[in-house]
Write a structure and sequence with these properties.
The chain has 15 helices and 18 strands. With 503 residues, the chain is α/β, with parallel strands linked by helices. The strands form three sheets. An eight-stranded mixed beta sheet has the order 1-8-2-7-6-3-5-4. An eight-stranded mixed beta sheet has the order 11-12-10-13-16-9-17-18, sandwiched between helices. The protein has a two-stranded antiparallel ribbon with strand order 14-15. The longest helix is centred in the middle third of the chain and has 14 residues. It binds adenosine-5'-triphosphate. The site of adenosine-5'-triphosphate has 21 residues, from helix 4.
Length: 503
């Protein structure tokens, strides 16, 4: 893959008109049981959204990617008044009839208005008798709060036993969700929680927490050893549900956990992505579920500006990366690589050149992983190098740039070779641009195969990225700054877009 011979230029292909740029429309559809609509049966598209970065600058959304030169100011209030924005809402939190203690929890998190997914999902989730829900919404639009508020509103504080279970695909995500439960439930006197992730210090403990958040393997172990009593469970949530049910190992564990829960447990599945084949399967896991789904063309977050660097060969990627970092001050960034070895290698090289980076891969033990993610969250390290283990769900507000050092791929369904993984791409880049912020996603391509994979992903997701020319780094700097300022990928003078744009 890295040989010079692989390098090809595609002057014509880069101008191909197969991905006409379109303003994606937020086409979230909502269907109530008993007639759940498949993802493709979406309601007609609404009007094209206005550009997020055109908002007035009443308060800064923290997107100062290139401090101090570029403060991109976006007014959250403006975004939440745009019916085509996923953060749009006609309701206030108080219209959702949540208990007073939860209203206080919401206020303590600084939330003023619900997002579209919160406004739509919560009335469905809070109904009695409880109903199952499959909920899809773009990355960073507040799905966690939606399922956490439902859970907390159903906890009987007089009963000291597990009543709700959240399963997440990674230790870091489980810890993050638990943190939201604790803050949001901070005004519920006597609320108890339990973190079910591998932890030798809790071995043998009986789980008494009313809300249990963990990874499927640990939860299964706890249940098997009778440390977790599942009889009183009222709610089961699978976050990143498509990933949890799709993956062989996790899927089996989730199914086995579910079998241990009461038959009438309210089952709630959330994700930014539900590929059609997984969505079909989820209906067995969450029968008769209400559904809130998105059309495939609406999955991308508009605040995330897509760019790519085209280098000559695999071994040039590192130099390009370092040059890029040398150009601008980036608040915090995440570099995604395919393999642990690459993460370690990159980390070694960047550290030796004076960059303060941390690395998180599945190769670390739990304590090390906790320490790394905490350092990154607290801003002690500005660059996090990781694999797909952190592609989903992680919410670190200061992340203004995501770099795809390697393009995400997955095993082909035929069992032979690998194919581009658009879902993982979407989740990776979704670590920035959260809840209305502006972020940048930079992808490195270096040969025919990586170019074709990237093109396939862009085509699938309707992305039209801007090419950054590595022969002219001054121009790269100018182009990146212009894109961030203008808030649009196309029509940047001096920045070649991947595909011809039809006006
Ligand atoms: N109503 C709200 N008002 C303001 N901020 C909010 C609101 N709801 C959620 N947020 C914030 O938005 C950010 C993203 O939320 P969250 O992590 O739940 O997104 P998500 O939809 O689960 O994303 P992903 O698909 O990547 O997991 C968080 O920092 C959260 O605190």
């Amino acid at each position: 893959m890295s040989s010079l011979g692989d390098r090809m230029t595609f002057p014509d292909e880069k101008k191909l008109d197969w991905a006409e740029e379109s303003e994606e429309m937020d086409n979230q559809t909502q269907t109530q049981q008993p007639t759940p609509a498949p993802a493709t049966d979406a309601a007609p598209a609404e009007a094209a959204p206005s550009d997020q970065t055109d908002g007035a600058s009443e308060f800064q959304m923290g997107s100062s990617l290139l401090e101090p030169e570029f403060d991109v100011n976006v007014k959250l209030n403006d975004l939440q008044q745009d019916p085509n924005n996923p953060l749009f809402s006609v309701k206030e939190f108080r219209d959702l009839n949540l208990p007073e203690s939860l209203q206080k929890g919401i206020t303590s998190l600084g939330f003023t208005k619900p997002s579209k997914i919160q406004e739509r999902a919560l009335p469905l989730l809070l109904q009695n008798p409880p109903q199952n829900l499959i909920g899809q919404s773009q990355s960073g639009t507040g799905k966690t709060a939606a399922f956490v508020l439902n859970i907390l509103s159903r906890i009987d504080l007089t009963l000291q036993q597990p009543q709700a279970l959240v399963l997440a695909p990674s230790r870091e995500l489980a810890r993050q969700i638990l943190g939201v439960v604790q803050v949001m439930g901070g005004f519920m006197e006597g609320l108890s929680t339990y973190q079910a992730v591998p932890d030798p210090s809790t071995r043998g403990q009986t789980v008494t927490g009313q809300v249990v958040v963990g990874t499927p393997g640990t939860v299964m172990d706890l249940a098997r050893r009778k440390q977790l009593n599942t009889r009183g469970m009222k709610v089961l949530v699978l976050d990143e549900a498509d990933n949890m049910l799709d993956q062989q190992g996790l899927g089996d564990q989730c199914k086995r956990v579910k079998q241990l829960l009461p038959k009438d447990v309210q089952t709630v599945l959330f994700s930014a992505t539900f590929p059609q084949e997984v969505l079909q399967f989820t209906q067995f896991f969450a029968p008769s579920a209400n559904q809130i789904t998105l059309e495939r063309t609406n999955l991308t977050v508009k605040g995330i500006k897509q760019m790519y660097l085209d280098v000559s060969q695999d071994s040039d990627k590192y130099d390009a990366l370092i040059k890029f970092y040398g150009l601008m001050t980036i608040a915090s960034s995440i570099i995604f690589v395919r393999k642990r070895d690459t993460a370690d290698e990159l980390s070694k090289r960047m550290t030796s050149e004076g960059h303060h980076v941390v690395t998180l891969t599945g190769g670390l033990d739990g304590v090390e992983r906790d320490s790394v993610i905490d350092q990154f969250r607290e801003g002690h390290a500005k660059v996090l190098i990781t694999t797909n283990v952190l592609a989903r769900g992680i919410d670190v507000q200061t992340v203004t740039m995501v770099i795809n050092y390697d393009i995400p791929d997955k095993p082909a369904s035929t069992g032979r070779g690998y194919v581009p993984d658009a879902e993982t791409f979407l989740h990776r880049v979704g670590r920035t641009g959260r809840f209305g912020k502006v972020g940048v996603a930079l992808t490195l391509v270096h040969d025919k195969r990586s170019w074709e994979m990237f093109r396939a992903i862009c085509q699938e997701l309707g992305i039209n990225p801007t090419k950054l020319d590595t022969d002219d780094w001054d121009n790269v700097e100018r182009v990146v700054k212009t894109i961030i300022k203008s808030g649009r990928n196309a029509k940047v003078e001096g920045g070649e877009t991947m595909f011809a744009v039809q006006e």
